[in-house]
Design brief:
mainly alpha, Arc Repressor Mutant, subunit A, 12 helices, 71% helix
């Protein structure tokens, strides 16, 4: 049982997630340990186990928070416009993803291991945040693309959400990767998160209409 006020518990949990997020800016998932995360917090490493049992659970909480932030952007987009053309909707959705680089980076990770090493209740909480993203995108399509029926909206989600897993690796290219592509003679156009997202969204939204 975790001791402390709800405010203290929430603050410590958030501090752990923030520590993980800072480390993830410069370190890879495999190199980040609970020891490293503990060193970034104001309390002892054993205290972390009161909140998270594994490194994967901390990353899953960060992942959930990123989905929550995107959901807030989607909700604001839905409430802030009475009408949008398909092109305008594509642009605004692409801009919303441009702000969520951390989410896209997490999507590019090995989600199977992260989910497998997290407790069921934490996994369910994460899936709820993910589910809200599906619902928000469907609501946007219903409002701004009323000509799309249920099967069209489902088809959109079945393409776009898996597509999101590949955005970060295409957009965040290291110097080492660029040199390797040049040495391999691969003709490749580098695009930003916004450019990649917009290209896919425009094609999906114009596919039938």
């Amino acid at each position: 049982m975790i001791k402390g006020t709800p405010e203290l518990i929430a603050a410590r949990r958030e501090e752990i997630i923030n520590a993980c997020a800072r480390l993830y800016q410069t370190m890879s998932f495999k190199d980040i340990t609970l020891k490293e995360i503990g060193a970034e917090t104001s309390f002892s490493r054993p205290t972390i186990y009161n909140y998270f049992q594994t490194k994967e659970e901390i990353f899953l909480a960060l992942y959930e928070r990123e989905y929550d932030l995107w959901n807030a952007d989607l909700e604001a987009l839905l409430a802030g416009h009475e009408g949008l053309s398909r092109g305008e909707l594509a642009e605004l959705l692409a801009r919303s993803l441009e702000k969520r680089e951390q989410l896209l980076k997490l999507l590019a990770m090995n989600n199977y291991d992260m989910e497998a090493n997290s407790r069921p209740e934490l996994l369910a909480s994460f899936k709820a945040a993910y589910g809200r993203s599906l619902e928000q995108v469907d609501a946007l399509l219903r409002k701004f693309c009323p000509e799309m029926g249920p099967e069209d909206r489902l088809g959109f989600r079945l393409v776009f959400f898996p597509f999101m897993f590949g955005i970060y690796p295409y957009a965040a290219v290291t110097d080492k990767q660029r040199r390797a592509m040049e040495e391999a003679g691969v003709d490749f156009r580098y695009c930003s998160i916004y450019e990649l997202s917009l290209a896919c969204l425009n094609r999906l939204l114009d596919a039938r209409f």
